[in-house]
Design brief:
With about 150 residues, chain A is of the alpha+beta class. Chain A contains three helices and five strands, in the order βααββββα.
Chain lengths: ~150, ~150, ~150, ~150
């Protein structure tokens, strides 16, 4: 449900993202979630550059995606995103993709990201500053978790 | 475990498939599974053209992917694949991706495909001929399921 | 020169579009030109759907691209585009790509598109209505050409 | 003409590389040339890792591509490639793409690569060792040029 989200990013489907079936190729929805994750960080005031300055980067550890209906070239898609949980070294984001002005779910995703050292790619605790900013944006107390 | 599979497809990582972190961009592993699915069908003697002639096509309905370690440009990757279950209108494939000559798991996936009418994209029962061929290849009786 | 163009489309570089060298992979600039072409048609009031209704589609016949400097993740790029010539069955577009707020040319392209029948993909004369609309937008008389 | 080349690389068109028109999206042919360039270097015994050890990398400076006919999912394509000229800091490669067992040209390309310092990306003279190896493979004396 769109109402469950405080953030969304809108993009238009590119011709190259469609396939022979005339619809968006499935792996592109995963790409869209990646784009939306970057925009989410910008929206909450914590761009990837800010994160790097805090000595952290994020890598995708696990994703589950459901494909419910189709989209095609030139469609405007809204990718809704939210942080639903923060663990010790990881945080979970939920995504739902809808065509603009429609309540028809195209795809949904549940993604687990791990905070890592940008050099060694080793897991590290989700920075307190990030917990704070995500919690403020989502209206939750993520420090209490974990 | 590689030994759990009777099929694998080998491909070499393209430069364009790497990203700024110097490693394969995550959505490309989903693309690799799509390539391996097409090759699996060829391997069991049921090319996508044969499937279309039987009045069926397949669409991805759900996928769960785990990202365990990394790969980079020029690496040879082996994508292991098997059909683990056949339901009424869907079948499940498991994928595991390893660098050639290594036992280090890079990524694994569990994918649910639905058989559909190529025109209407409506779900239809997995053709008996496909159950038979998949069962013969995997050494299982998939007719008994569902 | 940006001033030579009446149209531009802005997009942000996606993480997946960078490569191991840390910069945008070259073929993605060709993709950006394709995106800009579709937006150009929208900007002049002739969406691809309108074109299809006139019984025409466009295919790329030839492209020359120069790569002058680099761009990377999160950069905002402006793709400037214009129709510079219309022949009998083809038209030429020039593209120049700059980072937003910079005069540093990243890439330029010269692309020849052919109007084709959407079904047979056979070349057909550029529709008069399209010549008119492009001419009006560019401030040129394209009917005189050819 | 295939006979003009001593090297080719074969690849199979992936489903994701097709578009809504049912054919390979044009920018993917540029990607195929990039794949073929890497394989060419391997074929002449000068892998990109060898090149890096010599303190050189290559970047694409200019490309002209012609699109002559179409290819689609599952097609086996042969990308023919050769070095046709070596300048001071650059070398030129020609590519021609054909479906396997057909003489129908799908696409051709003329690409100018510049040798650069891997760190600074500044142009540097094409290493003599590379001139030698390319000349030996192509049966030409590239040292004489420039």
């Amino acid at each position: 449900m769109k109402n469950d989200f405080r953030f969304h990013h809108t993009l238009r489907v590119r011709f190259a993202e469609t396939d022979k079936q005339g619809i968006v190729f499935n792996a592109n929805y995963m790409l869209y979630c990646d784009v939306a994750q970057a925009e989410y960080f910008r929206a909450i005031g914590m761009k990837f550059q800010d994160l790097l300055q805090m000595g952290a980067d994020t890598v995708l550890a696990r994703i589950t995606m459901d494909f419910k209906s189709t989209a095609t070239f030139d469609d405007l898609l809204e990718i809704y995103g939210r942080v639903s949980k923060i663990g010790n070294t990881s945080f979970v984001m939920d995504f739902e993709i809808y065509p603009q002005d429609e309540d028809r779910l195209v795809s949904s995703a549940n993604a687990v990201y791990v905070c890592v050292d940008p050099e060694t790619l080793k897991a590290l605790r989700v920075p307190d500053q990030l917990r704070l900013v995500m919690g403020r944006f989502e209206g939750k107390d993520f420090n209490a978790v974990s």
